[in-house]
Amino acid sequence: MSSYRRYNYRAYPTQGQREALSCLYGACRYAYNWTLDQRELMRRRHGRMQSCTQLSNMFTLWKREPGMEWLLAVSSTPLQQSIRHADMAYRNFLRLYKAGRTHIVTNRRTGKKRRTGLPRYKSRRDGEQSAEFTKSARFKVGHADGCKWAFLTLPKIGRVKLRWTRELPSKPNTVTIMRHADGSYEASFTVQVDDKADAPEPLHEACGIDMGLDSLMSIVYTDGTREKIPHPRTLNRKMRRLRKLDKQLARETKGSNNHAKTRLLKAKTYGRIRNQRRDVAYKLASKVAGENQAVALETLNVKGLARTCMAKSLLDANWTRIIDRIQQLGVQYGRTVKRIDRWYPSSQICSQCGRRDGRKPLDIREWECPQCGIRLDRDWNAALNILDAAGLAESLNARGGDVRRRLAQTGRNADAREAGTRRTARLH
Q: Which of 346, 350, 360 is nearest to 409 (CA)?
């Protein structure tokens, strides 16, 4: 079974190439917005829409109109891809609209109402700009063995320098050249690869994971070991820097050069936060999916929790990306990933005797079961209950009473590392 993956590389275009890319991004935005206008115009006048091929032919004729010569100065392939993307976005909106899955929301500041799902216009003020080239554009990637640099040849752009960090498994189908808000450029290749070809050998039969804010992940394994991954708190480390830049922006005049420089510094700071979050999420997901044959996860309502007072810490934890990445790698490696019911009270049930002791405030990290008398750690106990609820605990020696007691119990004496069991490599 094969699937498509993306391989990203940092790009370093020259000043002339940056100007050419800026013109290309502007043309792609124009093609995208033009397609949305044509869609809406045809729907209102005739109640139907043109096909993507008809729109492409119309845009080709439109480029030859007086005053539209600047569209001929860039490659036509990214423009056609922008038309396809806008067409797909509009069709997805209509599909959801007919299914009754869209709803009306009101802007609290302006009072205007809009229907969710409707594609929005692209703006030059958007932080992310991109243009996609397909095989028909005949782009080329030149790389010498052992060299850390490569060159991507794009039509009407030239040879763009890339920082080559890993080899491509096969010939790429598409390449997207992107410009981020911090001014950096990136080339993203779409490659078709075979699944399970590079799957690592699992070290554990199964594991249960409890997501948290004190500890990012609490993991218990069926071989009697356990570990906690600390919360990286990436945003907190940069908050002082961000507050300083916000004050500096407030003192400067909008539109001035100093204001633009400060905005760029702020975008770079947020870019570092984004990269650090993604790095932690991908490393954790690779560790969990690579070391376990089966993984048990809880189903979290992240959007609902993000409306509470814990929103900043919750979004900084990056739960959604970690869980999604574990599921993606589970499919790629051929692992079993099970998610339990959202309403399962994993923190309320004693994993030893099964007594449900009711809801507990978040500041209670340890509690004693009134029925069996064992002192339980909240996170370890929840992770073990998640493993049970997924039907993965009845394997190897995790069904033994002593092992289960040690996995859920709190205190240094119950630590799995002091019990003499084999540990896996920790995440640095």
A: 350
Distances (CA, A) of 349 to 154, 240, 357, 360, 377: 59, 41, 6, 11, 12
Which two three-digit tokens encode residue 285?
């997901």
So which residues are the catalytic ones?
210, 298, 379
pTM of the model: 0.81
Distance CA 296, CA 301 (A): 16
Residue environment code for 109-120, b if the CB has 16+ CB neighbours within 10 A, otherwise e: eeeeeeeebebe
CB 100 within 8 A of CB 117: no
Mean pLDDT in consecutive groups of 10 residues from the start of the chain, 428 residues:
87 96 96 92 79 92 92 95 92 76 51 64 92 94 90 95 92 95 94 78 90 89 88 91 95 93 94 93 94 92 86 89 92 90 86 82 82 84 88 57 72 44 38
Residue 99, token pair as written in the block: 């299914």
Distance CA 406, CA 412 (A): 10
Buried b (16+ CB within 10 A) or exposed e, 339-378: bbeeebebbbbbbbeeeebeeeeeeeeebebeeeebebbb
Helix (H, G, I), strand (E, B), or coil: what is residue 183? coil
Residues facing 366 on adjacent strands: 377
Residues 30, 73: contact at Cβ < 8 Å?
no
Q: What are the structure tokens assigned to 304, written together?
A: 């609902």
- Spatial CA neighbour of 3 closest among 169, 166, 177: 169
